[in-house]
Write a structure and sequence with these properties.
The protein is of the alpha/beta class. The chain has 13 helices and eleven strands. Helix 3 crosses helix 5 and helix 10 crosses helix 11.
């Protein structure tokens, strides 16, 4: 263990027309420093996760963090991008900087503002996270890409509509207790299962309740070397990390297996000296419910094609053997691309410190797992976190 989370901040996710990328960054930065008990001058390096891809006219954004405090001036700052895993990519860069002995304290901020972009442009921007040579003309944008994945999964393993509805209902129920979530409403299984005017099909077998939300928001964490962290109010250490990058074209792999997800989990768990059964809970990348279903299999909770059994059994519910997405996941919380991975780390640290909001806190949580995915299982990042103070 070479680095630990010692502070965090999280804006509410949702539609924030009165905010800008700059204001969201500034709020998260100031709040994270306050939570860690540090000042801007104590930070040695900054990483900003910001996907953008056309959402913001301001495309050169690393130094916007310095709008929060003039004392940041002349410190190194770098923007990191890796599609929907942008936030975790920024986090891992920060950890590596500390591991290399180049910094004692690193600030990592993730941000995106998506809702001020017109609908058709949102779809076009998100589709840039696919292989455009093959998928650039996909109807319904990135939802269409995962609609094709869901269709193929149904053809190979049978109709999984009940399982997808169970995942959606679980995550929406969890999101009710998350004050940072964009949608805090328990829709229930029947609403998520049935097509209706309020829950129409979007792409393939995916309905509106199967798709994560377009969102604005920011999250930030302070990373510190372990020696420094143990002198601070709280410390949540990285017990293991993984990063497995796969081919961009889906045609070069079996897209129904999420092999990169499996490889990333194997890396993190091996480095942590753990198995998936040792974890207290997992925050996983449910950009679409079919993704969470396949991730059950990729992380080892179920055999190939049997993820539905996990989804339907209640095993991943808040009171189940391994709660998955106690925050409500991307499905309820929202998915501001660059902020998502940082949000996952902030909320996991919150759980492990016993500081999660009432109703969202996982009982006796000691080890938290995170999986953040960019593209269709292309950029795969995992973390295993453990509180050490």
């Amino acid at each position: 263990m070479t680095a630990a989370i010692t502070g965090w901040a999280h804006t509410p996710f949702g539609r924030h027309a009165d905010e800008t990328v700059e204001s969201l960054i500034t709020k998260a930065t100031r709040d994270a420093l306050t939570h860690a008990g540090l000042e801007a001058g104590d930070i040695d390096e900054v990483y900003l996760g910001h996907f953008n891809a056309g959402f913001s006219a301001q495309d050169f954004t690393a130094s916007l963090v310095y709008q929060a405090d003039d004392a940041f001036r002349f410190k190194p700052a770098t923007r990191v991008e890796n599609a929907c895993a942008t936030g975790s990519a920024a986090v891992q860069q920060g950890v590596k900087t500390i591991e290399a002995g180049r910094a004692r304290h690193v600030l990592v901020v993730g941000v995106e503002q998506m809702t001020t972009t017109p609908g058709p442009e949102i779809g076009a921007n998100l589709l840039k996270a696919s292989y455009l040579v093959e998928d650039g003309e996909t109807p319904a944008g990135f939802a269409g890409v995962f609609g094709k994945i869901a269709d193929a999964y149904f053809q190979r393993h049978g109709d999984q509509s009940d399982a997808l509805a169970a995942i959606a209902a679980k995550n929406h129920k969890n999101g009710v207790s998350n004050p940072y979530a964009q949608m805090r409403k328990d829709f229930g299984f029947e609403f998520c299962r049935q097509e209706s005017e309020k829950n129409p099909f979007v792409a393939g077998p995916l309905k509106r309740t199967d798709c994560s939300l377009v969102s604005d928001g920011a999250a930030a964490i302070v990373l510190s070397d372990v020696q420094s962290a143990l002198q601070m109010p709280r410390a949540v250490a990285f017990r293991g990390m993984g990063h497995a990058q796969d081919f961009l074209p889906m045609s070069k792999r079996d897209i129904l297996k999420f092999d990169g997800c499996t490889a990333a989990w194997q890396q993190a768990l091996a480095r942590a000296g753990l198995t998936i059964d040792d974890l207290s809970f997992v925050e996983t990348h449910d950009c679409f419910t079919i993704a969470e279903l396949i991730e059950y299999e990729a992380m080892g909770l179920a055999k190939e094609g049997q993820g539905a059994e996990v989804a339907m059994s209640g095993e991943t519910a808040m009171d189940g053997r391994l709660p998955v997405n106690p925050s409500g996941g991307l499905k309820a919380k929202g998915h501001p691309i660059g902020a998502t991975g940082v949000s996952m780390h902030a909320l996991t640290a919150m759980q492990l410190c016993g500081e999660a909001p009432e109703g969202m806190q996982v009982r006796d949580a000691t080890l938290g797992g995170i999986f953040n995915m960019g593209g269709a299982a292309v950029a795969n990042y995992t973390s295993v976190l453990e509180r050490i103070k």
